[in-house]
Amino acid sequence: MEPSPAPGELGAMLQAAGDFASYPGLHSDDTVKQFLERCPLPKLLGALQSEADAPGMVETVTECLDKVFSSRYGASLLPSYGAFIQAGLLTDSKGIRKLACKAVLNLLDKAEDSAAAVETVVQHNLYPVLINCLIDGDEEISAIILDAVKRLAEIPNGAEIIFPPDGQGSVQLDRVASQSSSLARIRILSLIAKLFTVSSYTATAIRDSNLLSIFEDEIKDRRDMLKTLSALEVLYELVEHPHSNIFLLKTNLLQLIIDVINDSSADSVIRSRATLISGRLLSSVDAFTVIDQSCVTNLLAAIDKILKMEESQNTDEIESALETLGLIGTTTQGAHFLLTSSNVARHVVETSFDRQGRGRQLAALHAFGSICGVDRQEDQMKLDGQAEEYLKRLVYTTAANSSKLTPSALLLSILQQDPDIRVAGYRVISGLVVREWCLREVCLNSEIIRLVTDPTMETTKLGMEARYNCCVAINKSLSSSQLLHEKSLSELIGKLNDAVRRGPYLSERKRVEARPVVVPAERF
């Protein structure tokens, strides 16, 4: 136990601690050193352990110590106070426990000697106590611990505390989860998601420890909507990570996600989130080399069912389904699969030009741009012959079945709508014009060229850049096309060259310079 301050000095120390804690920002290391010379750290810690009952003492001292440990100098002292941290994590006082949790985070995050920090965690057996606090603590404490354990995993040798090479660690997260409440299991899932993103070592350890099965168990049991949705939200964050797909697609998770999408009794919010997760899972280049194609076919059938819903059905669910198709279509393999192995891509093209629902149209246009290759490398934008033929037929069929009759008229109609729709439209045109048939459609419509080369058309940075990128895409495709030599297009080519040279932000409007005005005195 640390020495408690003498009764006579307690008041002065609390006054100094209160002044130190009230400073709005972080203290410099020099300021912290000067403060600790007046109020030694052992006595501050002793005040928390004493039986003195001064009003507001615990709050004042914990706030003060938080400021001390948040500095690099204060964090460097923490390896000598591992016993205090352990006691703080075990105490019933929320304020002291929170201070101890933040002390662990500062120890790992700011201590100059990472080996000493890890040794402190091991010597005082802090990791199992942190997991207990994660499970039993309130939301604020749990959030601090999630960051602290992630930081531990990022430090050399720190990950081995969480995932020992022999697999015989003092804390088995799957066992803890099986014995915990639903809220605690969601927190463990959040921890797994954070650890997964640290390195390939931690991701592999999570897979080898069978911790991904906790996600499967939570999603499989759909009796509690909030619990299922919480698990899906954590999984949604996890699948954002680049190497998550390869690990997750080797589990049963995608099939479980498809089951959720097909479950008509599930809430539409749950189905929407599940749909987007499936899109993220299949948005990587390697996804189609790992997953069984029959599983993808089943997923597209489930999405197709959503998109065939009547207009009275949930709009968010339909928008999520369209966004998912765009995610799948970002890769060459995904776009090819959408166009050749299913009819689901027709929903994207048809909805892109349907003004009946603005949100759906916007989602469809973004998805259409992705399928056309606007997010892919230039040499991967075009697909193989079969997929390209289907894409062309899909666009011409959609045009023929509309009042516009031609693809060029359809594309023009997009550029005549509101700014958000236009931005998505520029994106679609940028992807489509690498195809000769679409380039011809665009170049033979002088109104499209007038709009995309008009420097006053857009007023936002996003809009200006999207319009300019569209000009560049058309111009680039023309430079390698036979259309470049058609005399009838010489004026159009000149407009495009001027627009590209001008850049995205410059306007043709003449700037009116400010001029001094001389007013005769007799006017007054």
Question: How would you characterize the overall build of this protein?
Answer:
With 524 residues, the chain is mainly alpha-helical. The chain has 32 helices and no strands. The N and C termini lie far apart (86 Å).
What portion of residues is helical? 55-70%
Number of separate helices: 32
What Rg do the Cα atoms give? 31 Å
Unreliable spans:
508-514
Task: Say how many strands there are.
Answer: 0
What sort of overall outline do the alpha carbons produce when their principal axes are compared? elongated
Helix vs. strand class = mainly alpha
What's the story with the biggest beta sheet? none
GO cellular component, one term: cytosol
Pfam family, one: Proteasom_PSMB
Organism: Panicum virgatum
Protein name: ARM repeat superfamily protein
Note the topology:
Blueprint: H1 7-22, H2 29-38, H3 41-49, H4 57-69, H5 72-77, H6 82-90, H7 94-110, H8 114-123, H9 126-136, H10 139-154, H11 159-162, H12 173-178, H13 182-196, H14 200-208, H15 212-220, H16 225-238, H17 244-248, H18 253-262, H19 268-281, H20 287-290, H21 293-307, H22 315-328, H23 332-340, H24 345-352, H25 358-372, H26 385-400, H27 407-415, H28 419-432, H29 436-443, H30 446-453, H31 461-479, H32 490-502
Helix pairs in contact: 1-4, 3-4, 4-7, 6-7, 6-9, 7-10, 9-10, 10-13, 13-16, 15-16, 15-18, 16-19, 18-19, 18-21, 19-22, 21-22, 22-25, 23-26, 24-25, 25-28, 27-30, 28-31, 30-32, 31-32
Task: Tell me briefly what this model is.
By secondary structure, the chain is mainly alpha-helical. It is 68% helix and 0% strand.
